Amino acid sequence: MPTSQFTPGDKANILSEALPYIQRFFDKTIVIKYGGNAMTDDKLKEGFARDVVLLKLVGMNPVIVHGGGPQIGELLKRVGKQSEFIQGMRVTDEETMDVVEMVLGGLVNKEIVNLINQQGGKAVGLTGKDGGMIRAKKLLIADQDDPNIKHDIGSVGEVLGIDPELVELLDTRDFIPVIAPVGVGMDGESYNINADLVAGKLAETLRAEKLILMTNIPGVLDKEGGLLTGLTAQRVDELIANGTIYGGMLPKIHCALDAVKNGVHTAHIIDGRVNHALLLEVLTKDGVGTLIKRS
Ligand SMILES: Nc1ncnc2c1ncn2[C@@H]1O[C@H](COP(=O)(O)OP(=O)(O)O)[C@@H](O)[C@H]1O
Ligand SMILES: CC(=O)N[C@@H](CCC(=O)OP(=O)(O)O)C(=O)O
């Protein structure tokens, strides 16, 4: 809606509504996962960057973890390689890992850093290899029919641990960390890690107030396609068991649940296609997606 349709009183009320949220979340860490599918439109990307800068300037500590699945897929296609996924994870051979590091650590990471800096923020791009921040090991995927069978899908990692020192150091000088989900193994090898998993573990490690997962769907939907605005662990179990939650939503919901069980206050799955979704979620009473709470 164009702002001219609001009276000055409406505008003042909207701005004033943010005060209790600014007070509540002042000096709190908010881990935001910016999914590759939410990074499509230039206007939305600019809106996202403005929101991040605004949250920082009103005293919160936004930490960005980004994805880039579609962008990796595009470059792989250009070099004549097909993308293959098993249970939502990209099969990652050596050549694919090179492309993953190039796209996540290079193109996508620097694009987001640049967008935030263009809006007046001080963003710094990192991968999990910087400062040995994200330690990882090979993820073996349990077979869906026989969990005793494990599939090796190459350089796909799971998080062993995250060293928060670098992020904390950046925070002392008001930099905004922008982190690519690439981890480092015992022997210095690179691992491709699902960005939701990195965001969840980072939120736990930083004892974040909020974990916000931005995707390209309104939130978690029920069987009829209606938005589920609030979910608890028990309800999630039911929705997985009856097949309502599947595919790419599974790692998202699992890491959101793990995060809230391990000290993160709330987790949110929100629609990155809504302009200023982040501001609406953090600074207004009208959330824009699904809130996941412990109980
Ligand atoms: N119950 C559900 N509600 C919403 N989306 C669901 C649900 N179950 C499965 N999905 C799927 O999960 C997708 C989101 O995961 P994904 O595509 O991996 O997102 P991203 O690329 O942002 O990480 C949705 O587009 C949808 O196809
Ligand atoms: C192991 C694995 O699948 N890694 C992901 C990492 C990027 C990601 O998670 O990006 P989105 O959040 O945009 O999907 C991949 O290769 O696509």
TrEMBL record:
It is an enzyme of class 2 (transferase). Keywords: Amino-acid biosynthesis, Arginine biosynthesis, ATP-binding, Cytoplasm, Kinase, Nucleotide-binding, Transferase. Residues 28-271 form the Aspartate/glutamate/uridylate kinase domain. It holds the Pfam family AA_kinase. Pathway: Amino-acid biosynthesis; L-arginine biosynthesis; N(2)-acetyl-L-ornithine from L-glutamate: step 2/4. One of its GO terms (biological process) is L-arginine biosynthetic process via ornithine. GO terms for cellular component: cytoplasm. It catalyses: N-acetyl-L-glutamate + ATP = N-acetyl-L-glutamyl 5-phosphate + ADP. Substrate binds at residues 68-69, 90, 192. The record marks 33, 252 as: Transition state stabilizer. Gene3D superfamilies: Acetylglutamate kinase-like. Its EC number is 2.7.2.8. Its main location: cytoplasm. SUPFAM superfamilies: Carbamate kinase-like. GO terms for molecular function: acetylglutamate kinase activity; ATP binding. InterPro entries: AceGlu_kinase-like_sf, AcgluKinase_fam, ArgB, Asp/Glu/Uridylate_kinase, Glu/AcGlu_kinase, NAGK-C. It is found in: Cytoplasm. Belongs to the acetylglutamate kinase family. ArgB subfamily. NCBIfam families: argB. Catalyzes the ATP-dependent phosphorylation of N-acetyl-L-glutamate. This is Acetylglutamate kinase. The gene is argB.
